[in-house]
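Cont'd.
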Amino acid sequence: MQQDVLRSELRRRKQRMTAQRELVLKAFADTDAEHLSSEEVYRKVLEKRLRISKATVFRTVELLAEVGILRKIVFRDGIVRYELVEDTENEEQQIICNQCGKAFDFSLDKINDLLKSAEEKTGFKIEEVQIKFYGLCPECQERLERIRKATNSAHI
Amino acid sequence: MQQDVLRSELRRRKQRMTAQRELVLKAFADTDAEHLSSEEVYRKVLEKRLRISKATVFRTVELLAEVGILRKIVFRDGIVRYELVEDTENEEQQIICNQCGKAFDFSLDKINDLLKSAEEKTGFKIEEVQIKFYGLCPECQERLERIRKATNSAHI
DNA sequence: ATAACTGCAAATCATTTGCAGATTC
DNA sequence: GAATCTGCAAATGATTTGCAGTTAT
């Protein structure tokens, strides 16, 4: 698992494995949440009655991102969150409901064609692709339809 | 132009057109930069020897985004920047250099196919597509290559 | 006239930093 | 034992807020 990846990366960098670094990594391994902010990691560690400081969480999470174990994402609310890289391998594509906010991962073939043609057009060497579709999920489409029927009269 | 859009939107909302709101809008209209942070808008107004407070810039820029004149973007450095919506209409596709941060708009055909196939797969009704490619722009590729050659000896 | 807006300064909130003491290799 | 960590508390920097005075309608 990532423990070992971390250990060997740390050795390469002449850095050390510590209890706190394990705790932060474990927080990500143990949670169902897709992403965690530093604040959330901090709380998860405290919940287990283990000690860590916020500053250390910030430093550790940043380290794990440098090492490639976590991916750093700046969310629309401006808060930085992290996710385990392996969890989302090849799932950079998300479809998000504008109504209920639920996000679903899904994968599309054809992405590679797209990437190639973008590289040709721009001369870039592409390292990461992010595709987000925003729209209405099936449930919200139905719900909104029902509401529209019910409120039919009171509209402009 | 956007002046009029703003005026009528404000009327609808029972809000007022003010000198400061014009100034902020003008800052976006007059600049070559693709995006401006509140701080940058603030400076641009001051440069013209006109008075505005930072708080007002923050409030105004947020208002313009609500109204749909500006698009709010949270950058990787955590700073919120805004861009004129019309500038990027139909150009949701951006390619961004991980090194120098320059972003380029460009368009790809094939997007519609992609969209269709995503709708079929998920049952969503898609309203917006955002595609971001991250990588190295041609200049940075060159520069990095040059640096690598120059520093060849001192490496692991 | 009066509701909406602005400027100011103080407050907030996430994140960063300096440093002294604790820990890992 | 020495370099690397951690915790703490103070600093920072972007953004927000309360409020008294100003301005647009």
